Amino acid sequence: MTNDLIHDQSAGIERLLEIMRRLRDPETGCPWDIEQTFDSIAPYTIEEAYEVADAIARRDWPELEGELGDLLLQSVYHTAMGEEDGHFTFQTVVRNISNKMVARHPHVFGDESRDKSAEQQTQDWEAIKAAERAGKAQRGTLDGVAIGLPALMRAVKLQKRAARVGFDWPTTDQVIDKITEEAAELVEARETLSHDEVTEEFGDLLFVMANLGRHLGVDPEEALRAANAKFTRRFEGVERRLAELGKSPDQSDLAEMDALWDAQKAAERAQKP
């Protein structure tokens, strides 16, 4: 077995495919890699996708380069296992996605005019995807919305699908009214119902909040990531101010930390143009 391809840094994707074949070789490969399955690798795939998004959010381009490689490795890993089991190969995966992109962009690769708005292109894209689902015998409106998506993202996708067939509130005000209703039910559940019932009511409130985001043109997942980042930034500011006082958070109390939090918020607002 030659190592020429393995060590050829100019070989591109074929080198990576060969590295994976060697790692998965039942006789000479890595014991850990050999033991992996689609199920065991899937969580790593999700994690790597989030790390790509994190590098983009931080505008860390050298880090993004590395994270994109890690994500590509996940595709190579899954296709290697698919080839071993006789399901598909890397080349068939590449062919399928290439065919899909050509079919979904007739205004670029076909005879259709490019003289259309982004909104019209989005509508055409959805129509093409609907035809693809019909070809796969996905007849239900909600068929094909991946179960493994982050919950907020999946909520929005489910709502968009339902809205296409007219199952949607006509106005944002009605969504807000529903939020008020669900919040009241959650308060009542907290006082009188079981933990499971409280969890259900909380889920209903989150689902409607996702719907409000959709009506407002706000991506709930993106909005919550931004809120998480803001909380992290401000709490770290509180910790820095406490450190200047020779304290750590566990040596402080809520009143002091709340005051430092407000000062941090005020400082951020003062810096805004």
From TrEMBL:
Pfam families: MazG (PF03819), PRA-PH (PF01503). CDD domains: NTP-PPase_MazG_Cterm, NTP-PPase_MazG_Nterm. It comes from the Bacteria. The keyword Hydrolase applies. Coiled coil: none annotated. Residues 36-109 form the NTP pyrophosphohydrolase MazG-like domain. GO terms for molecular function: ATP diphosphatase activity. SUPFAM superfamilies: all-alpha NTP pyrophosphatases (SSF101386). It catalyses: ATP + H2O = AMP + diphosphate + H(+). Gene3D superfamilies: MazG-like. The keyword Glycosyltransferase does not apply. Keywords: Hydrolase. NCBIfam families: mazG (TIGR00444), PRK09562.1 (NF007113). PANTHER family: NUCLEOSIDE TRIPHOSPHATE PYROPHOSPHOHYDROLASE (PTHR30522). Belongs to the nucleoside triphosphate pyrophosphohydrolase family. This is Nucleoside triphosphate pyrophosphohydrolase. It comes from Pseudosulfitobacter pseudonitzschiae. The lineage of its organism: Bacteria, Pseudomonadati, Pseudomonadota, Alphaproteobacteria, Rhodobacterales.
